[in-house]
Amino acid sequence: MLRQILTAVGVVELLSPDAFVGAAERIALDNPEDCELESWVAPVARLEGLLFLLLVRRSDASYSGFKQMLGVVGIVALLHPRTYVDYGAEIAYTDGTRCEWKPWVYSGTRLVGLAYVLVALDELRKR
């Protein structure tokens, strides 16, 4: 099921990166209209979607490696959610300090990080 979810995310990012990023902003930001994305964000989101699809669908080995990489990202998100979100905002927005995150974003980031770590551990257990 995870493979199908990641495939769907990759397809949406590849075909409609602006809509994908816009939806994420509306969900996570209290003030999306005050936060200006860097010009490169949409093309990089499209590339990320393509990479997701290649890694998830290419082979079982690439999918396994992708899940292990999620674990590395997950450790950072789990242990340092505020740093993870704020650093990402500084990179993706012209002035990331203007972004006002909804109250649940940092705890949600921690939960997603935990999920990523669990996916990676499950993958390592299968070896």
Question: In summary, what is this structure?
Answer:
By secondary structure, this protein is an all-alpha fold.
Question: Can you put this structure into words, describing what you see?
Answer:
This protein is an all-alpha fold and 127 residues long. The protein has one domain. Helix content is 76%, strand content 0%. It has helices spanning 2-15, 17-28, 41-57, 60-79, 81-92, 105-125. Helix 1 (2-15) packs across helix 2 (17-28), helix 1 packs antiparallel against helix 3 and helix 5 crosses helix 6 (105-125). The mean pLDDT is 97.
Give the overall form. Answer: globular
| SS content category | mainly alpha
H/E element string? HHHHHH
Distance between the termini: 20 Å
What labels describe this entry?
127 residues, single chain, mainly alpha
Topology:
Blueprint lengths: L1 H14 L1 H12 L12 H17 L2 H20 L1 H12 L12 H21 L2
